[in-house]
Structure formats: C-alpha cells, structure tokens
Amino acid sequence: MTEAVVDSKTEVKQATKYVKETENVAEKYSVLTVSKNSSDVNMNVGEMPSAAFTAVPTMKTVKKIQFANTEDKQEFSKYPTKAGRRSLSRSISQSSTDSYSSAASYTDSSDDETSPRDKAQVNTQGSSDFCVKNIKQAEFGRREIEIAEQDMSALVSLRKRAQGEKPLAGAKIVGCTHITAQTAVLIETLVALGAQCRWTACNIYSTQNEVAAALAETGVPVFAWKGESEDDFWWCIDRCVNTEGWQANMILDDGGDLTHWVYKKYPNVFKKVRGIVEESVTGVHRLYQLSKAGKLSVPAMNVNDSVTKQKFDNLYCCRESILDGLKRTTDIMFGGKQVVVCGYGEVGKGCCTALKALGAIVCITEIDPICALQACMDGYRVVKLSEVIRQMDVVITCTGNKNVVTREQLDRMKNGCIVCNMGHSNTEIDVASLRSPELTWERVRSQVDHIIWPDGKRVILLAEGRLLNLSCSTVPTFVLSITATTQALALIELFNAPDGRYKQDVYLLPKKMDEYVASLHLPNFDAHLTELSDEQAKYMGLNKNGPFKPNYYRLVSLCSVSTRAGSQNEFSMNFSRSLFALFTLNTLKNLLPKMESIASHLVVKQQFLK
Asked: Start and end of every S-adenosyl-L-homocysteine hydrolase NAD binding domain (predicted)?
C-alpha cells in the first residue's frame, strides 16, 4: 500500500514537471530565436531567462567569424545562411504561381513599385539603351540562359555551323516575342550570326525579368518587364523601332503587334524592310489581311503553319504546359472535372490529350467540320458552349478568334469555374465586359483573379485572359528549340534571298527547311534515319537527300486518326471525296463544254492541294 502511494506521488510530480515544460515551449523557442538573430552572438546562455531552458541542453557559445579583408567578407555574404535559405525557400514557394524564372526572392523588393521607365540604369559597358526591371539581376539571368542552352543543342549547333559565314551580317532585326531564357538563346544566336537586334515583349506577363537584364547586360537593347501596362507595352515597341541612327530591315514578330505598329506609325521604315517572320495564328491572320488588301509591301514568312511549329510547338508544348499553368495557379485536381476546350486545332489537341490523361471529362467546341470529326474520332463530345456552360468546371479557349467566351456565358457559369486562354491574343475571353461596377475583382495570387458577382458567385480568371502557359508557368525548352531554329532559318532565308525569289506576299516555310530543322534535333534521341537506296528513290520519284514530302503535303491527315487501316469510316470518307470530285468535274463539263481540259486540271489540282 505504501509503495502504491509513493508511485502515485512520483507520477504526479512527473506529470507536473511535464506540464510546466509544455507551457514553456513557446517561450523557449521564442528566446532561442531572439538569441539566434541577436547582434551579440557571443551572449552566454546563462544570461537568458532560466524558465526558458527547463530540461534543455546547454547551448555552446557561438563565435564570430573573422575575415582577413573586406573582399572575403563580401564574398561570404553572397551565400545565404541557413535561416536565409529557409526564407528563400518560403519565398519561392509562396510565389509558385509566377514563372519559374521570375525568382521573386532575387529581386530587390524596394524597386518593385517603381516603373522601369522612371529608373536611370546603366550596364557595365556604360550603355543605357534598354529598359528592364533591374539590371542587377543579369548574373542570375545568365545562369538561366546557360541552362536553356543545354536543351537547345540544335540551335547552338546551327550557331556554331554558321558563325564563321555570318549569314546575317548587315541584318538589323527588331523583334517582339516572349522574352524568356529560350528566346535569349535565339537572340544571342542571331547576334553571333552577324545581326544587330533590338527586342521587346509580345505579352505583358511573360517576360522573365532576369533574362531581360542578362540580354541588356550583353549589349542587346531590350525594352520589357513583367507586368507592363498597356501604355508601357506600346511605349516599349516604339522605343525598339524609333531610335536615332538605326533602322530595322527585318522583323521577327509573335502576334503581329510590332508589324502593325511599324506599318501604321512608320510606313517608310515598313517599305524598306526586307522580310517579316511571324509565328502566331493571330499575326499570320493579320498578314494575310494586309496581303489580301494589297497593303503588304514586303515578303513575309508564315512560320506558324510550318510542320515543325504546328506539330511540335503547338501540339507537344501545349500538351505539357497547359497542366503546368493550371496546377501552379489553382492547385486543381483534374480527375472527374468537366472541361470544355474551345477549338480543336493543334493547340486544342495537345490540351485535350493532357487533360483526358489525368481523368478530366473533356468536350470540344468547333466551327470546322473536319476538326470536329477528328475530335469525335478521338473520343470527345463536340458541343456548343451555350449547351454545357452551366456544368463546366474549366473553360479553355485556343482558337485565335475574338469573343469566344462572351459576358452572357460568363454570367451563366457555375461558382468556382476556372476560365483561361491558351491562344496568343487576349481577345478570346470578353474580359472588358467584366470590368463593370456590379462586379468585384479580387487578386488572390499572381495572375489569378476572382471575379465576384452580386450574388456571391466567383469565377476564377487566369492571367486576365492572356496566354496561360507563358504568363503563369514555363514551357518545355526542347520544343522551343525547334521553333527558334525554324525562326532563325526563316530570317536567314529571307535576308539572303536574291531579288525576285519572294514577292510581296505571305509564304510557307520550304519543306526542305522543315526537314533540316527536324534532323538537327534527332541526335538528342540517338535516332538513326533509314536512307533510301537509288532504286527506292527512283521508284518514289524522290531525291535521296529530300525533301521527302511536297510543299502541299500536310502531315496532319484526317485518315491518320483511324485505328486500323482500311476501316469502313476511312473508306467512306475517301469514297465521299471521289464522288465530290466526279460531281464537280461533271458540273464544270456541263457548264463549260469548251473548257473540259482546264476543268479537269483545276479539279485535280484542287484535290492535291486539299
């Protein structure tokens, strides 16, 4: 009985001691933190409140680090302490919605509110012919460019092969593209090939500030920063074009804004340009409009419809980056989500493939019956947006058109619906109609806005309707290497073409050039091409070295989606084509009996072109 009482008293004492220690945990860690950050690092443990150290091991005295000279101390200061690394990690985690290379923690936050237009910055060469967020970020931007070069071996290979010849010597290129580490590799390749370049951004959210600083540090006049206003955007374009003692003779554009500005504001400069290279659906559409109106006074190369751009950048790039952009901004889980993708071109195909693979229930809207049929045969429902808008969890536009998602449809969306755009232009979603007094805008993350209706409904708008993947995330470097190599070759072709080869019109990239770009990237996969024998080449009517497809050949064929050769659906489509051709031929024969041969030629040519 006595032993039981003693044990009971012992347990009570131990419990009391545990409670006291528990109560002092917060105070203990608080004091420890103060000690760690105190300027007097030699403070003895005994000087601290004893209550904070109940049952805590004695701390060792921390000694100050002695430096031999000031230079050693500055070198040491470049590297963060453990506490610094932890805060850096938290900073990067909190800004995960920014592009990987935005590196908010490397940016001097005191300058964030100051417009770069109001800053006086000079690079180490003494030049001030640039306007970036912070020229001091150049060193970090250089590291990112070096990382990008490792996965852009084909473009670097092209640089090494042609560097001695300087095929762009005398070229003065003004560019308007996304300013990323991958674009920087392209710009530096153009400079290495002899060109002078001035550059600005085609999107107000896609610029990587440290990369822009790195380019400015090397002497490339860059006018861009992330988060520009509309006024800043056009000011930057004007600064690129309108500079004393320098006049552009080549244009590399993404979206057509630069081309439009030069055409409208500087018509004399536009007439003297030797060529335009355009890589987006929107920009190409603008060029064809100018050509149709007879106002295109220079030859232009349509890179967007080249096979290497359509099949790789548009398809494979978007297949990966759509998920990255949505995950970074919304942390969404795709399994079971209802998603509608507006447009089933190459961008739409890439988006749908990725979303479907993660378990999303995907449906398509389309205006083109051919693309709609492809969507059906790939297993997607083709619907009208107005029919399904109330049930959708995510709405993605990728058409290149305007007002694809209207205010009426936005009003009918359910609470929490995510709306974003994968097309180049910000016209696909009617964002302007959302800036009305009855709606409230709430910024919840970088590039993420909640649009709140009077009844409390929230619609999540990403990047204010601008290009999602480059505004909110990054894109695969290897794919951009393919597009950048294509752009470089197009510039070389237009600049060096003899007079008369290209007229004042829009041209597709020659098939031989497409094949060359592809061949440069095959070594990355240790791929080995099969070579035609002389007999095989003669049988097919081909040159052994290519091109292996005629210029009118499209690598995207309707029958390619068939699951087995010779299926009934495939036969039905081919048979329908034949009937249509016969019907057209007979109609022409009846209407124009004296022009039978011409009619036959036209029909056959038309079928080949299709």
From this structure: 314-475
Pairing of strands 250-253, 506-508: unpaired
Helices (H), 407-533: 407-412, 468-472, 477-496, 511-521
Say what the pLDDT of residue 55 is. 41
Measured CA to CA, the distance from residue 100 to residue 182 in angstroms comes to: 13
> Which residue pairs from 568-571 have beta carbons closer than 8 angstroms and sit at least 24 positions apart in sequence?
569/377
**Are 273 and 262 in contact, with CB atoms under 8 Å apart?**
yes
For the stretch 410-438, pLDDT in tens is 999 999 999 999 987 789 999 999 999 99
Please state the three-class secondary structure of 33-94 as a single string.
Answer: HHHHHCCCCCCCHHHCCHHHHCCCCCCCCCCCCCCCCHHHHHHHHCCCCHHHHHHHHHHHHH
Give the model's pLDDT for residue 16: 53
Token couple for 502: 């290209």
Q: Which residues pair with 381 in a beta bridge?
A: 363
Q: Which residues contact 208 (CB under 8 A, 6 or more apart)?
A: 99, 101, 102, 141, 144, 179, 180, 181, 226
Q: Measure the CA–CA gap between 359 and 337, rounded to whole angstroms.
A: 8
Phi first, then psi, for residue 507 (nearest 5°) are -120, 150
Phi, psi of 582 (to 5 degrees): -65, -40
What CA–CA distance (Å, rounded) separates 22 from 145? 51
User: In which element (H, E) is residue 418 found?
Assistant: strand 417-421
Residues 132, 209 contacting (CB under 8 angstroms): yes
Residues in the chain, how many? 610
| Token couple for 36 | 């760690």
Closest-CA residue to 224 (of 216, 235, 236): 236
DSSP state of 359: T
Distance CA 383, CA 363 (A): 7
* Cβ proximity of 553 and 343 under 8 Å: no
C-alpha span between 314 and 346 (Å, rounded) = 6
Rounded to whole angstroms, the Cα distance separating 388 from 409 reads 10
Residue 10 is predicted with a pLDDT of: 55
Q: What is the DSSP letter of 509?
A: P
Q: Which letter does DSSP use for residue 167 in this model?
A: T
Residue-wise pLDDT for 327-341, tens only, equals 999 999 999 999 999
Ranges in the chain, pLDDT < 70 = 1-112, 554-610
Cis ω before 498 (30° cut-off from 0): no
Going by C-alpha positions, the residue among 173, 231, 174, 233 that lies closest to residue 201 is 233
pLDDT at 70: 57
DSSP state of 313: I
Q: What's the CA gap between 404 and 398, in Å, rounded? A: 9
Helices (H), 78-180: 82-94, 138-150, 153-162
Tell the residue number behind the tokens 């058109």, with chain if given.
401
456 token code pair: 């409390």
